[in-house]
Design a protein that fits this description.
Layout: H1 7-23, H2 28-31, H3 41-48, E1 56-64, E2 67-74, E3 96-103, E4 107-114, E5 139-140, E6 146-148, E7 157-161, E8 166-171, E9 176-181, E10 186-190, E11 197-198, E12 213-215, E13 218-220, E14 229-235, E15 240-243, E16 267-269, E17 291-296, E18 300-306, E19 312-316, E20 336-342, E21 347-352, H4 357-368, E22 382-384, H5 391-403, E23 410-413, H6 434-443, E24 447-451, E25 456-457, H7 463-471, E26 485-487, E27 490-493, H8 500-508, E28 522-526, E29 546-547, E30 551-552, H9 553-556, H10 560-575, E31 584-586, E32 598-600, H11 608-623, E33 629-630, H12 638-647, H13 651-661, E34 678-682, E35 691-695, H14 703-722, H15 724-737, E36 742-743, H16 745-748, E37 761-764, E38 768-771, E39 780-785, E40 790-793, E41 799-801, E42 804-809, E43 817-820, E44 823-827, E45 843-848, E46 855-861, E47 875-882, E48 885-890, E49 906-913, E50 921-925, E51 929-935, E52 948-957, E53 962-966
Parallel strand pairs: 22-23, 23-24, 24-28, 28-31, 31-32, 32-33, 45-49
Antiparallel strand pairs: 1-2, 2-3, 3-4, 3-5, 4-21, 6-7, 7-8, 8-9, 9-10, 10-14, 11-14, 12-13, 14-20, 15-17, 16-19, 17-18, 18-21, 19-20, 25-27, 26-27, 29-30, 34-35, 36-37, 37-38, 38-43, 39-42, 40-41, 40-43, 44-45, 46-47, 47-48, 48-53, 49-52, 50-51, 50-53, 51-52
The protein binds 2-acetamido-2-deoxy-beta-D-glucopyranose (NAG).
2-acetamido-2-deoxy-beta-D-glucopyranose binds near residues 850, 851, 852 and 854.
Protein name: Glucosidase II subunit alpha
Family: Belongs to the glycosyl hydrolase 31 family.
Subcellular location: Endoplasmic reticulum
């Protein structure tokens, strides 16, 4: 994974790291490899602009093709701004074109670009293949525009319909775009502080004009001059803003400018391979999603998304920031102002009105897509390490899991399995029989993942390189030659994934015939796809490298990894004739990545700070569409921190929140040199954190220590496997609505202010709350449980009151986790070697009663691997407990009486939490037989609890309608 260093130098760097660690300043060594805002001319320029400096006004406003269009024209010659490089006064004044379109569900789209009738030197880049084709069918054809002078304004405004409750307004002079409730409160605005700026493309006229930029020995030729865009966006009725991953920072975004914020950087969105990134930092890392969400008690939730793939920088202004300089718009209570800056591209922005948190994520998903439904196995536990040496090593690890009675579903192979870092090949000395190796795992229901990165080794004997060269499939450098950069294999070139033909060519490489040694149980992992280039500026490709259609790398940089992920995922799809759901994990991402697979949060380190920040990082990814994400702990520095890891991030702690909560993913940790080790990495698919556990078998002679830790890990992983039916149901919800599997508390409790900035606890679906523990050897935890319901401890069944912060004792073997009253959670409690072997196992239903002794929940099941669910081949049940009766009913839409998917699974146990009074037995209808009822136990922990009631062996089929009445 994220190895920014070549192996040759890694020893050196490690030593260096060690040194720095002792100095306790790990962060400083890499910081100067990356640009700050001040070293980035467009960012520095945009940040220095004064509110009100935009002089554009809207003219020629009309309805055209169902959109509101206008021209933006500067009122006076461009401001003499001393800091502007190459003042543009002598350029003719060229208008910009503005287009506002309305879509279903209250979505406003705003585009601003250069006017083609003034012959710009080239077309600016508009990101293709991100917006869903279906989205275009949701356009509302605007018929009319009303123009009026809104109270307090001196100039007219044009108003168009957005939904029954909302309307969009274009204020003409100065130009401002905003969304408001009909005739009332504002939701979102753009340019209300007059910071909008749009640098138009230029061609060199004068000799000696120098637009080049230099950074650490790299020169960017910038043939079209500066071409950045910046503007302010305000969120009204907002208490906090969230989103814009990926940063290792808090869930609620801290101000990056304003009173009290010193020397702070804007949040940077620029996909970079940042080895051992620092926590609590706005620096850009592997992926970028320019989508921000605001939430407030008064107005609810809204969102703003800018589809733009160039480097972006975003400031969140603290309160008290120069607010007076804005244009006075009505209602500005609790406004949060932000400044958006991008190096290139166009304005293609979307305003989402909400008003609830789930509305906003669904509105965003209607533009960029919902997450793909993963294969069931992918939601279980994955095992990885860098590196599995050979087939024997793989076999050993595999059998250790069986010996220790720990289930796992996937084993991962990093780059060392290849022949000289040439992807799609095997080192035949170490892996002589890859098919046989995969088949052995497959016999236990297990899968394998191999790594395939975008850098292709420039080796004349490598067929892939020969073919790519011959066909002209590589990205070109600024002079038009195949770009040659340094990565794992040494000298490498990168396929131009922007080109759809090259993506199909790439996809073909995954056929069983082309990928020799692959079998149907093999899936793929894309690393280094930012793209990482060791000798490139900021460890990536030069901005003036050239892609398909003359697009400069600067324009699409943040989407390169997305297109690569897409091509790989399509390859797996083709390989299985479109029948098998792909599984591809990617490090780089962009809006839309959720349609192609999962992502992980890269190379962090095994310390408490990274464990802590993994929760907001994954919650943020979920909010911005990427519900299937994974966190790796212990990514890179185990050699240094082994002791910390063992004593600090003990399996009972670091690991538990993830395991309990996530559908698992794994990632690798490094092998400890010379030690006989094995590594368990739990990962959570979908939304959560991955967890990582390292068991050092020989490291400690203390046998009881080892056994104890093995037991803790086994328990944690068992809990995850028990919850797989619940997770899979949540994945289905995410893939139909965009609502993430793992959610910030405020998404479920949007009017409970105590939850708004809480990112230590989170919800798994609507039913489970997990409180992470982030300090070493904590004995107590303060847990806030949202009000309006009570909460049952997942292990003991003990009920806690909501609306209160509880100080709870915490044990080594668990983190606090609770089931919300009024919910029903489906489980499978029997342990197998892998999730695949649990298919026919019976279910347990856990009913957490609310104060009216009622609860409800859902269960979704399909074949776990094909796309037949899209034709209705699935089971979707609704469970309702009320008036002493549990009713199971179908909620899948009718498939004209035909059952396209069926299951023989039964319910073997029903657990009721919450003192159900006076139960003696249970009557099952329509079968008309009785089942036994007993007090306790709660099988997670054993012990009997007076407020737990168990209905034993009702043995009703999961596919059938039935009622169970407590007598
Ligand atoms: C309890 O749950 C039932 C079923 O969801 C619901 O209809 C009822 O309103 C809930 N009662 C309370 C007090 O929350």
């Amino acid at each position: 994974m994220a190895k920014t260093m070549t192996r040759a130098t890694s020893l050196l760097v490690l030593t260096f790291l060690l040194l720095l660690l002792f100095l306790n300043s790990v962060s400083s060594w890499k910081r100067d490899e990356f640009r700050t805002c001040n070293q980035t001319p467009f960012c520095k320029r945009a940040r220095s602009r004064k509110p009100g400096s935009c002089s554009l006004f809207a003219t020629d406003v009309a309805i055209n093709d169902g959109d509101l269009i206008a021209k933006l024209i500067p009122k006076k010659p461009r401001e003499e701004n001393g800091e502007d490089e190459q003042a543009q006064e002598d350029e003719p004044i060229k208008p910009l074109l503005l287009r506002l379109s309305a879509y279903q569900n209250g979505i406003l789209r705003l585009k601003i670009d250069e006017d083609p009738s003034f012959d710009p030197p080239k077309k600016r880049f508009e990101v293709p293949d991100v917006i869903l084709p279906e989205f275009h069918n949701k356009k509302l054809w605007l018929q009319s525009v009303s123009t009026e002078v809104i109270d307090g304004d001196s100039a007219p405004s044009s108003i168009v319909y957005l939904s029954d409750d909302y309307e969009a307004v274009l204020r003409h002079d100065p130009f401002v775009v905003y969304v408001r409730k009909k005739g009332g409160d504002l939701v979102l605005s753009m340019n209300s502080h007059g910071l909008f700026d749009f640098e138009q493309l230029r061609t060199k006229k004068k000799e000696g004009e120098d637009w080049e930029e230099r950074f650490r020995g790299h020169t960017d030729t910038r043939p079209y001059g500066p071409q950045s865009i910046s503007f302010d966006v305000s969120f009204y009725g907002a208490d906090f803003v969230y989103g814009i991953p990926e940063h290792a920072s808090s869930l609620a975004l801290k101000p990056s400018r304003g009173p009290g914020v010193e020397d702070s950087e804007p949040y940077r969105l620029f996909n970079l391979d940042v080895f051992e990134y620092i926590h609590d930092s706005p620096f850009g890392i592997y992926g970028s999603i320019p989508f921000m969400i605001s939430h407030g008690k008064a107005r609810g939730t809204s969102g703003f998304f800018w589809l733009n793939a160039a480097e972006m920088q975003i400031d969140v202004m603290g309160s008290g920031w120069d607010a007076e300089s804005g244009i006075s718009l009505p209602s500005s209570q609790n406004r949060i102002d932000t400044l958006w800056m991008s190096e290139a591209g166009i304005v293609d922005a979307f305003f989402f009105v909400g008003p609830g948190p789930k509305d906003v994520v669904s509105q965003y998903a209607s533009v960029t897509g919902t997450p793909a439904m993963p294969q069931h196995f992918a939601t279980a536990y994955h095992q990885c390490r860098w590196n599995y040496r050979d087939e024997e090593d793989v076999e050993n690890v595999d059998s250790k899991f069986d010996e220790f009675n720990i289930p796992y579903d996937v084993l991962w192979l990093d780059i060392e399995h290849t022949d000289g870092k040439k992807y799609f090949t095997w080192d035949r000395m170490l892996f002589p029989n890859p098919e046989e190796m995969q088949n052995k795992l497959a016999a236990k229901g297990r899968h394998m993942v191999t790594i395939v990165d975008p850098h292709i080794k420039r080796d004349e004997s490598f067929h892939l390189h020969k073919e790519a060269t011959k066909m002209g499939h590589y990205v070109k450098d600024a002079t038009g030659k195949d770009y040659d950069g340094w990565c794992w294999p040494g000298s490498s070139s990168y396929p131009d994934m922007l080109n759809p033909e090259i993506r199909s060519w790439w996809a073909e490489k995954f056929s069983f015939q082309n990928y020799v040694g692959s079998t149907p149980s093999l899936y793929i992992w894309n690393d280094m796809n930012e793209p990482s280039v060791f000798n490139g500026p900021e460890v990536t490709m030069p901005r003036d490298a050239l892609h398909y259609g003359g697009v400069e790398h600067r324009e699409l940089h943040n989407a390169y990894g997305y297109y690569f992920h897409m091509a790989t995922s399509n390859g797996l799809l083709k390989r299985g004739d479109g029948k098998d759901r792909p599984f591809v994990l990617s490090r780089a991402f962009f809006p839309g990545s959720q349609r192609y697979g999962a992502v992980w949060t890269g190379d962090n380190s095994a310390d408490w700070d990274h464990l802590r920040v993994s929760v907001p990082m994954i919650l943020t990814l979920g909010l911005t569409g990427i519900s299937f994400s994974v966190e790796v702990l212990g990514g890179s520095m185990e050699r240094v921190r082994r002791e910390d890891l063992i004593s600090g991030i003990s399996p009972g702690r670091g690991v538990q929140p993830m395991i309990v909560t996530q559908p698992g993913y794994c990632l690798r940790s490094r092998n400890l040199e010379g030690d006989e080790t094995w590594t368990l990495t739990e990962y959570s698919s979908r939304t959560m954190t991955r967890m990582y556990i390292e068991l050092i078998i020989k490291e400690r002679n203390d046998l009881s220590w080892r056994e104890r830790n093995t037991e803790l890990m086994r328990d944690a992983i068992h809990i995850r496997y028990m919850l797989l039916p619940y997770f899979y149901t949540l994945f289905r919800e995410a893939s139909s609505s965009g609502v993430p599997v793992v959610r910030p508390l405020w998404m479920e409790f949007p009017s409970d202010e105590a939850t708004f900035s809480n990112d230590e606890a989170f919800m798994v679906g609507n039913s489970l709350l997990v409180q992470g523990i982030y300090t070493e050897r904590a004995k107590h935890a303060s847990v806030y449980l949202p009000g309006g319901q009570s909460w049952y401890d997942l292990r003991t069944g003990i009920a806690y009151e909501g609306g209160v912060t509880h100080k709870l004792k915490v044990l080594e073997e668990s983190v606090p986790a609770f089931q919300k009253s009024g919910t029903i959670v489906p489980r499978k409690d029997r342990f197998r070697r892998s999730s695949t072997q649990m298919v026919n196992d019976p279910y347990t239903l856990v009913i957490a009663l609310n104060s009216s002794l009622a609860a409800e929940g859902e269960l979704y099941i399909d074949d776990g691997k094909s796309f037949e669910f899209e034709q209705g081949a699935y089971i979707h049940r609704h469970f309702l407990f009320s008036d002493g009766k549990l009713i199971s009913s179908n909620i899948a839409p009718s498939t004209s009486g035909k059952m396209l998917f069926s299951s023989d699974c039964v319910v073997e146990r029903i657990i009721l939490l919450g003192n159900y009074p006076g139960a003696k037995s249970a009557l099952i209808e329509p079968a008309n037989h009785k089942a036994e009822v007993e007090l306790g136990p709660l099988s997670l922990q054993g012990g009997r609890s007076p407020n737990v009631l168990t209905i034993r062996k009702p043995n009703v089929r999961i596919t059938d309608d039935w009622t169970i009445k407590i007598l």
